[in-house]
Write a structure and sequence with these properties.
Layout lengths: L1 E2 L1 H12 L4 E8 L13 H7 L2 H6 L5 E8 L18 H20 L2 E7 L5 H11 L4 E6 L20 H5 L25 E6 L4 H10 L2 E4 H7 L1 H12 L6 E7 L21 H14 L2 E7 L8 H18 L23 E2 L4
Parallel strand pairs: 2-3, 2-4, 4-9, 5-6, 5-8, 6-7, 8-9
Antiparallel strand pairs: 1-10
Length: about 350
């Protein structure tokens, strides 16, 4: 049988008129956590490709404020380098400013979207989220790499491979004193962190994951269980009571290099774009997304087609985080549409 047009119209309106959601966007054109030039252009490349406009078109109840890009100066109190931490003074100075900005955005009851920049920026974005939510957050780290090295274990000294080790309480004793980083305390337990997409893990990182029992799903787990099951297992592990604010730190290199070639440390055998999108669709459906990073898009790597493919993939992932449906979007102007434009809706009787 069929639902009458007036009933269908009311159902359609209910799909649109929900609680207002605010998104605060902050760009971090930062490249000092790794050696490849170009990743600092990631935030503006995403904006130029229409990210903000596409977010605004998802549905009526989204309010988006673009705070522009972080601009920092190196702190004067950092007068010495830290062994095997390249660009340390820049990392400390930029992430301190970012932490403050992220905290303000979230305290304004907005979801914070941070556009990188390399993955070292997550030191600041996660720290700001933790402070805004009084430590009651969990982190989903979507990445080909674990980013769990310290300055003593890293073979490169690149800080974009260290942010999770700096954030975790369980690894705080493995660091020397870091001047200029007193604002950042490692106050999130590694038990509240889950990895998805791992396939390039250093031996020390592997040891830490095993020793501390970190929730870590590699690509073989995705193949064995499917991405939907993996996401559910990850969230159930780090947020069993379903009440924590979720921080997703999403490295574009979690995708297979055929899907996102314009990134600094691509690794073959990664997530498909479809799997990458589904991760964020599932997080969106929890209603608990508090903050998201999208990092390591490098428009200077690859051909023009490679860059476009990578930026498109990043935008698809971000849109999924805020409610874009692959089934299609309900028209935003439903209140002004004439009733006769709606055909009778088929109703299935069980």
């Amino acid at each position: 049988m069929f639902t009458k047009p007036k009933v269908a119209f009311k159902i359609l309106k209910r799909c649109i008129h929900t609680k207002e959601v605010k998104i605060g966007v902050i760009g971090v054109p930062f490249d000092k956590g790794q050696p490849k030039v170009g990743v600092a252009n990631g935030p503006d490349a995403l904006r130029k490709a229409g990210l903000i406009e596409q977010l605004a078109n998802i549905r009526n109840n989204l309010t988006i404020k673009d705070y522009g890009n972080i601009s920092y100066e190196v702190m004067k109190e950092i007068d010495s380098d830290i062994p095997n931490m390249k660009g340390y003074a820049h990392v400390a100075s930029c992430t301190k400013l970012l932490s403050n900005q992220v905290e303000k955005i979230i305290r304004d009851e907005s979801i914070c979207l941070t556009l990188g920049g390399d993955h070292a920026i997550a030191i600041g974005s996660v720290d700001g989220h933790i402070k805004a939510k009084n430590e009651d957050i969990c982190v989903l780290w979507v990445d080909a790499h674990a980013d769990l090295n310290t300055n003593k274990t890293s073979t490169s000294g690149n800080v974009h491979g260290m942010p999770m080790a700096l954030l975790a309480t369980e690894l705080s004793d493995y660091w020397p004193y870091l001047p200029g980083m007193d604002w950042q305390k490692p106050i999130i337990s590694i038990r509240n962190v889950a990895y998805i997409g791992l396939r390039s893990v250093d031996s020390y990182e592997r040891l830490v994951i095993d020793k501390l029992g970190i929730t870590a799903f590699g690509m073989e787990d995705v193949e064995n269980y499917g991405i939907s099951t993996i996401v559910n297992m990850a969230l159930n592990k780090i947020d069993p009571e379903k009440k924590r604010s979720i921080h997703v730190s999403y490295d574009i290199d979690s995708l297979d290099s055929l899907e996102a070639p314009s990134t600094g440390t691509s690794v073959r055998g990664g997530l498909t774009l479809r799997e990458g999108i589904q991760i964020m669709e599932m997080v969106y459906n929890t209603g608990r997304l508090g903050a998201m990073d999208l990092v390591e898009v490098n428009p200077s790597i690859g051909t023009e087609q490679d860059v476009k493919k990578t930026i498109d993939a990043a935008i698809h992932i971000i849109l999924a985080a805020f409610g874009y449906s692959r089934r299609g979007l309900v028209p935003k102007n439903v209140d002004t549409l004439p009733l006769q434009t709606f055909p009778p809706t088929r109703q299935i009787i069980k």
